Amino acid sequence: DTEVTQTPKHLVMGMTNKKSLKCEQHMGHRAMYWYKQKAKKPPELMFVYSYEKLSINESVPSRFSPECPNSSLLNLHLHALQPEDSALYLCASSQQGGNSPLHFGNGTRLTVT
Amino acid sequence: GNSVTQMEGPVTLSEEAFLTINCTYTATGYPSLFWYVQYPGEGLQLLLKATKADDKGSNKGFEATYRKETTSFHLEKGSVQVSDSAVYFCALMNTGFQKLVFGTGTRLLVSP
Question: How far lies B93's CA from each of A29, A46, B32, in Å?
Answer without folding.
Answer: 17, 16, 5
